[in-house]
Amino acid sequence: MGVQGCGKSTVGQALADSLGLRFVDGDDLHSRAARAKMASGHPLTDDDRLPWLARVAETVAAALAPIDNGAAGEPIVIACSALKRSYRDLMRAIVPSLVFMELYGSQALIAERLTHRNHEYMPPTLLDSQFEALEPLAADEAGARIDLANSPDAIVGLILAQLNTTDLNRTTASMAAGAASATEPKKEIAH
């Protein structure tokens, strides 16, 4: 989880690759109307975001759901901004075991990164509004904050180390880059 340009998609894909899991970019779950609004330089409101956040969490829940033959579903890694505590709470209401990994850094560093990126519908001008909305992961929330000043490979290593220290592993954990399981033993991690 985190603001645009913090590396959610890059780290999420690398994390999924390292764990042999499927990666989903939450950006792909935005409605056409939300994409058009952002492309025009207007930040989304809570009313715009809530259906999207529900879709992100439902995507995780569907992946984790038992298969028709009774086999366990598959954990996934999903990238999602999840900027506010209320957004994360909404997602955890759908997937209670959701664990978030927040990629954080200075606004100046992220703004500099955005000068090298061309996003389909997220102009760099939206960064200010994202930092204004951002509520960092709190100590009582499942997950960790990871400094994005590290390389993507180092960040993946830090996330894996964090998962190991919280006694999560590939069979009981999922990484959701900005998501979680409806069943007790599984954990989902969002960044």
Automatic annotation (TrEMBL):
Family annotation (Gene3D superfamilies): P-loop containing nucleotide triphosphate hydrolases
Organism: Cryobacterium frigoriphilum
Record-linked InterPro entries: P-loop_NTPase, Shikimate/glucono_kinase, Therm_gnt_kin
Cellular-component GO terms for this entry: cytoplasm
Uppermost EC category: transferase
Protein name (database record): Gluconokinase
Keyword entries, A-Z: ATP-binding, Kinase, Nucleotide-binding, Transferase
UniProt-listed Enzyme Commission number(s): 2.7.1.12
Reactions listed under catalytic activity: D-gluconate + ATP = 6-phospho-D-gluconate + ADP + H(+)
The family this protein is said to belong to: Belongs to the gluconokinase GntK/GntV family.
Biochemical pathway: Carbohydrate acid metabolism
Biological processes, Gene Ontology terms: carbohydrate metabolic process
GO molecular function annotations of the record: ATP binding; gluconokinase activity
Domain of life, source organism: Bacteria
Lineage: Bacteria, Bacillati, Actinomycetota, Actinomycetes, Micrococcales
